[in-house]
Every structure is written in structure tokens, then in C-alpha cells.
């Protein structure tokens, strides 16, 4: 029997809607003439992989908006909240996952010139998710997951127009752990990406 209503995904979508509303309300109500204390941004990503010799497909998506506050000339506080998901397998047998991410971060920024700045960012990401296994198109198993990531990395930003800035985090020194509910042990990952 297939279920078309997933309460976890419904809750995640509701929380994301509330977060987007808060970001929009803060953006509208912020005094933009006061050196642009509040700012918004985000990450959008998607990917798909397939093989011409088999029915195996893999896809994923991420939607992670954030809001930031310039506490001083050099210190920026921020909060990101969003959703992500993945699916891999063929049409009948596949795994599907979804998660809600909450990620506070802190940046220390130094201006290189009027348009460019470099910064260091430290953050903690909490992922609350669900993984489902489908066999023959029917749900065969479900598990809840909890993931925590701590990262530290350098970044750069460039103001290419008034009120428009593009930034990039170059990579990070990170530690991540993933725990599946009711399963002993956890998956741990340590890495340095530049």
C-alpha cells in the first residue's frame, strides 16, 4: 500500500515556509539605510546521475536559504534552514531520503577593498531526516536519521552592484557524524576540502 502523505516532509515544508516568511518579513522591515545590517542568501542545488546500460538512477536536491546579521564591521551572525533529499535505484527498487537542516554560522570578515572581502566561517549543521527503502514499488523499510556537522573554512565575497554580493566558501575542515535510529554505531567522517 502506498502512502501519499508523509508527515515528516509536511512538517519540514511547514518549517521551511515559516523560515522563508521570517526572512522576508525581516528583509522588508529592516532599515536598509542603516549600512545593510540584515542580509539574505542561500544555496540551491540539484543533481542527477544515470547509466545508459541500466535503469539505475540517482538524484538529489538541496534548498538552504539563510539570513545574516552584521553585528559589527567584522562579525557576521547567520542562520540557515532548509531541506534536502535524494533518491537512488531503479523504477521499482530504490531508496529515498529527505532531511531538514538547521545551520547557525559565524563569520569574521576583513575588507580587502571597497568591493571585496575575505572571511573565515565556522558553523554547525543539524540534519534531521528519514530514509525509506522501496521494493517492487512498495515501502519495505523506514528509518530516522540524525546528522551533525561542524566545519571551519575560508571564504571570499565580492559586491558586483549596490545591494548584490556573491560569496563562496572555498572549502572546509569538517567533522560529520550520522546516526540511524535503532541501529548500533554511527557513520563518522573527517575531511579537509580546499
Tell me about this structure.
- This protein has one helix spanning 7-29, and strands spanning 38-50, 57-70, 75-89, 94-111, 116-135, 138-161, 164-169, 172-180, 187-193.
- It contains 1 helix and 9 strands.
- Strands 1, 2, 3, 4, 5, 6, 7, 8 and 9 form a 9-stranded antiparallel β-sheet that branches.
- With 194 residues, the chain is mainly β.
- It is elongated and about 60 Å long.
Compose a concise summary of this entry:
The chain is mostly beta strands and 194 residues long. The chain has one helix at residues 7-29, and strands spanning 38-50, 57-70, 75-89, 94-111, 116-135, 138-161, 164-169, 172-180, 187-193.
Supply the key terms:
nine-stranded antiparallel β-sheet, mainly beta, 9 strands, 194 residues, disordered N terminus
State the secondary-structure class: mainly beta
From the N-terminal CA to the C-terminal CA, the straight-line distance is: 46 Å
Strand proportion, as a percent range, falls in: over 45%
Largest β-sheet summary: 9 strands, antiparallel
List SSEs in N-to-C order: HEEEEEEEEE
Q: Tell me, what's the shape?
A: elongated
- DSSP helix fraction: 10-25%
* Radius of gyration, CA atoms, in whole angstroms: 20 Å
Low-confidence stretches: 1-5, 29-34
Q: From the structure provided, what is the oligomeric state, counting identical versus distinct chains?
A: single chain
Provide the residue-averaged pLDDT.
83
Number of E-type strands = 9
Number of helices: 1
Amino acid at each position: 500500500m502506498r502512502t501519499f502523505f508523509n508527515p515528516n516532509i509536511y512538517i519540514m515544508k511547514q518549517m521551511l515556509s515559516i523560515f522563508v516568511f521570517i526572512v522576508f518579513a525581516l528583509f522588508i522591515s529592516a532599515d536598509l539605510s542603516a549600512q545593510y545590517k540584515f542580509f539574505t542568501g542561500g544555496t540551491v542545488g540539484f543533481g542527477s546521475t544515470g547509466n545508459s546500460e541500466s535503469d539505475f538512477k540517482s538524484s538529489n536536491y538541496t534548498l538552504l536559504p539563510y539570513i545574516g546579521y552584521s553585528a559589527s564591521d567584522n562579525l557576521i551572525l547567520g542562520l540557515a534552514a532548509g531541506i534536502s533529499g535524494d533518491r537512488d535505484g531503479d523504477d521499482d527498487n530504490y531508496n529515498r531520503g529527505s532531511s531538514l537542516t538547521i545551520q547557525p554560522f559565524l563569520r569574521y570578515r576583513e575588507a580587502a577593498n571597497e568591493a571585496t572581502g575575505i572571511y573565515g566561517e565556522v558553523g554547525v549543521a543539524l540534519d534531521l531526516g528519514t530514509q525509506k527503502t522501496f521494493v517492487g514499488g512498495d515501502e519495505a523499510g523506514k528509518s530516522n536519521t540524525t546528522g551533525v556537522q561542524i566545519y571551519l573554512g575560508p571564504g571570499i565575497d565580492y559586491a558586483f552592484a549596490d545591494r548584490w554580493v556573491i560569496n563562496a566558501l572555498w572549502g572546509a575542515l569538517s567533522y560529520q557524524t550520522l546516526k540511524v535510529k535503532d541501529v548500533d554505531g554511527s557513520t563518522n567522517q573527517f575531511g579537509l576540502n580546499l
